[in-house]
What does this fold into?
Amino acid sequence: MNASSGEALHSRLIAATLSAGVLAGLGAVGFHYIADYLDDVLFTRADSQRAISRLPFVLSVPTSGPHGWKMANTRRNGSLSSGADRLLIGPSGA
It folds into this structure.
């Protein structure tokens, strides 16, 4: 490897590093703009409601999701339905 190809590799590495840094910074700024926008949209609506009017939503969302279905199957079958549960709870009989 001669000196000119080493310098070219070095300058390409610097350019790639700077490009990755700039893209990561732009992605972070964009993410925070989207997070702030969603914060304004979602929490402004929630703060404008009374607590009693949010109760059906708060109760129905967790029970209708995948975890709610899994809990319903566990109660119906009397056993664990996934390997993740076995890992978290431990082997049966323990």
